[in-house]
Amino acid sequence: MKKLLYYSITAIITVGLAAFTAITVPTEAAAGELGPTVVVASPMVKMDGKATISILGCGFTPGQEINLLFADVNGIPTNIGDDLKPEPKVNERGAWYATWSCGRWVSRGLIEEGAYVFTVTDSDYSPLAQAGVAFYEAKEEKKK
């Protein structure tokens, strides 16, 4: 019985070590091969006239011209570059940052409660990366 237990433990350790050695840690070169990434720093946005979203990206080609598209409630993608502050410019490290005040879109009914997608494109409008954002209705607080 003890031999069976020892063989089982040895087999588990051997399989574990084999699996562990198969895991590769991405190097800096490999990480660059993953492609551009976009992050919405405020992924849950309360729908009101002051709604603001912070968006940032990395892994882009330094100096690359990019466009940021947002598809409204009707699914129509619109270049929101003129509404971004500051205008997104890819720096020498391949990163950029912008803020979008989208309260006007909310008040005009172009954004309703639900999930939406930002698409970052190159200058020819070929998609490079996407990120999601969710909008939720502001709940009225009860007064006591």
Can you offer a commentary on this structure?
The chain contains 3 helices and 9 strands, in the order H-H-E-E-E-E-E-E-E-H-E-E. The protein has a single domain (34-137), classed as Immunoglobulin-like (Sandwich). The strands form 2 sheets. The chain has a 5-stranded mixed β-sheet with strand order 2-9-8-4-5, with no helix packed on it. The protein has a 4-stranded antiparallel β-sheet with strand order 1-3-7-6, with no helix packed on it. Residues 17-27 have low confidence and may be disordered. It has helices spanning 2-22, 28-32, 103-107, and strands at 37-40, 44-47, 52-58, 67-71, 77-79, 84-85, 96-101, 114-121, 127-137. With 144 residues, it is α+β, with helices and mostly antiparallel strands.
Number of helices: 3
Percentage of residues in helical conformation: 10-25%
CATH-assigned fold name: Immunoglobulin-like
Q: What are the segments in which pLDDT stays under 50 over at least 5 consecutive residues?
A: 17-27
Strand content: 25-35%
Looking at CATH, the homologous superfamily is Macroglobulin (MG2) domain
Structural class: alpha+beta
What is the mean predicted local confidence, pLDDT? 82
Q: Write down the oligomeric state.
A: single chain
Domain module tally: 1
Write the element-wise H/E pattern from the N-terminal end onward: HHEEEEEEEHEE
CA distance, first residue to last residue: 70 Å
Physical arrangement of strands within the biggest beta sheet:
2-9-8-4-5
Overall body shape: globular
Largest sheet: 5 strands, mixed
Overall CATH class: Mainly Beta
Cα-atom Rg, whole angstroms?
A: 23 Å
E-strand count: 9
The CATH architecture designation is Sandwich
